[in-house]
Specification:
Keywords: Monooxygenase, Oxidoreductase. By secondary structure, the chain is α/β, with parallel strands linked by helices. It has a single domain (3-254), classed as Rossmann fold (3-Layer(aba) Sandwich). The protein is 38% helix and 17% strand. The protein is built from nine helices and ten strands. The protein has helices spanning 12-21, 36-42, 62-69, 90-107, 133-142, 144-158, 196-208, 234-246, 251-254; strands at 3-7, 28-33, 52-56, 74-77, 114-118, 167-170, 175-176, 183-186, 194-195, 217-223. The strands form two sheets. An eight-stranded mixed beta sheet has the order 3-2-1-4-5-6-10-8, with helices on both faces. Strands 7-9 form a two-stranded parallel ribbon. The chain is globular, with a radius of gyration of 18 Å.
Length: 255
């Protein structure tokens, strides 16, 4: 049966991945999170799943992470910072720990999983071709600290591509909470908004691809429906993000 590791299982994307994977009883799920209790509160069906394991601890515990990754078809790196926190390093920390864990598996001569890594369309120019320049700049500033972290994490992982050879960066547009309505995987453009559940379904599709089409590539997941809910929290998030970009010290007051 196919086995998948989900890093960042209690976040919006990680939780959506687990919900999508739970739809098939054949999927073995290995969830990595800081709080087992929080995850089970968010997703009670996971507790009754016989072929599901929860690994609890900080990502810095590379030996625990290696055990989570061992024997999986794919690992979803869905650890993400949801706000424009100055000096955030969560993506880099995840990349560093994942590399360390994979080195453990490589020394054991254990097959390495495919990596499916959450990123953002704002970091791929061709995905933003239809966005006016001033809009793209404003959106970039509103998440500048997060994007810097994601960019550096990608550099870290790509620098290991001589032995970590099957990785895909998933770079969606703006995300929202909505039902699963259908998706497509694209290598040339991004569509906003996209539900977390459709993002998750697309990431699973990428993980299951055996043709090599997406290896070491950037892709976006796009909705097939034009009736995806608008993310009404986005305007306030934009204002807060710009504030923390131009005045990083303000996060200690308003964060």
């Amino acid at each position: 049966m196919p086995s998948y590791a989900v890093l960042g299982a209690t976040g919006n994307t990680g939780l959506s991945l687990i919900k999508v994977l739970l739809k098939s009883p054949e999927n073995e799920i290995k969830a990595y999170c800081r709080s087992r209790a929080k995850l089970l509160k968010q997703c009670p069906p996971l507790a009754a799943r016989e072929n599901a394991q929860i690994f609890e601890g900080p990502l810095s515990r590379s030996e625990i992470l290696a055990e989570c990754l061992r024997g999986t078809r794919a690992a979803f790196l869905a650890v993400a910072q949801s706000e424009n926190v100055p000096n955030c390093t969560v993506a880099r920390d995840t990349a560093y720990s994942t590399i360390a864990a994979l080195k453990i598996l490589e020394r054991e001569k254990t097959a390495l999983p495919k990596l499916v890594i959450l990123s953002s369309a704002s970091l791929e120019p061709k995905f933003c071709g239809d966005v006016p320049g001033w809009v793209h700049t404003m959106l970039y500033y509103a998440a500048s600290h997060v994007y810097k972290d994601l960019e550096q994490a990608e550099v870290m992982l790509r620098s290991e591509q001589n032995w970590i050879t099957d990785s895909t960066w998933v770079k969606p547009g703006g995300l929202t909470h909505d039902t699963q309505k259908g998706h497509t995987v694209s290598k040339d453009h991004a569509v906003t908004p996209l539900s977390f559940l459709d993002l998750a379904a697309g990431m699973v599709e990428v993980a299951n691809d055996e043709s090599g089409t997406y290896a070491m590539s950037n892709v976006s997941i796009n909705p097939t429906s034009n009736k995806v809910a608008f993310p009404w929290n986005a305007p306030m998030a934009l204002v807060r993000g710009l504030l923390f970009h131009f005045f990083p010290w303000s996060y200690s007051v308003f964060g």
